[in-house]
Amino acid sequence: SQEFIQRMRSIPLGLSQKEYRTIQKYRTTQKNFDVFWVGSFKTHSIREDAAKHLREVGERAGLTLCMPEGRVSGQEFFELAAQSRVVLSPGGAGWDCLRHVQSFAVGSLPFISEPSIHTRLWWQMPRELFFRNDLSDFRDGLHRLLELSKDSSFFEQTAATIESNFLWHHSMHYGLHEAGFAPCYREGTMV
To answer: What is the CA angle 52-56-61, rounded to 5?
Structure first.
């Protein structure tokens, strides 16, 4: 029914607290790259377009890019992302992508394609994290985000929002609440 469709909400991808804390071990204060990107172009056309824009913007602005060809291991992904101020994070098979959250875990800011679905939690994040899907604000947005990456308070506030909304137990609470259920908590876990 129409009412059911209007009530539908996406549950954002998230990580367990254990996964998030494990990935945090890759954090480093040494940032060797301005922007990091690696990924497949098979899942979403915006990935190829955004990577192309990144190369062009990087070349013109003299940015230090890390864009390995082909696949990298999970460990290498986390190491390279941690060494980058910004991680390009367009959607994958759908709009959401684990690297949106993984970027924060390693201490970097994700540059995310706008959500193509209603996702209230992501829209609560600072607008500077997003670029339009038509890429019309990609260059300016990337430069703005690179400037913000120098502001540790911006990162800490934004990462705190990620930790309070996008770890699995928070994502599930949000999904159940949006569906009209009132989950109960016992000693910090949902029952």
So the answer is: 145
* CA–CA dist 119, 144 (Å, integer): 23
> pTM score, two decimals?
0.80
Q: How far apart are CA 100 and CA 63, in angstroms?
A: 21
User: What are the tokens at 79?
Assistant: 């190491």
Mention every residue, 6+ apart, whose C-beta is less than 8 A from residue 185. Answer: 191
Over residues 34-60, the pLDDT tens digits come to: 999 998 766 668 889 999 999 999 999
State how far the Cα of 109 lies from the Cα of 150, in Å rounded to an integer. 10
Which three-class secondary structure string do you get for the chain?
Answer: CHHHHHHCCCCCCCECHHHHHHHHCCCCCCCCEEEECCCCCCCCHHHHHHHHHHHHHHHHHCCCEECCCCCCCHHHHHHHHHCEEEEEECCCCCCCCHHHHHHHHCCCEEEEECCCCCCHHHHCCCHHHEECCCCCCHHHHHHHHHHHCCCHHHHHHHHHHHHHHCEHHHHHHHHHHHCCCCCCEECCEEC
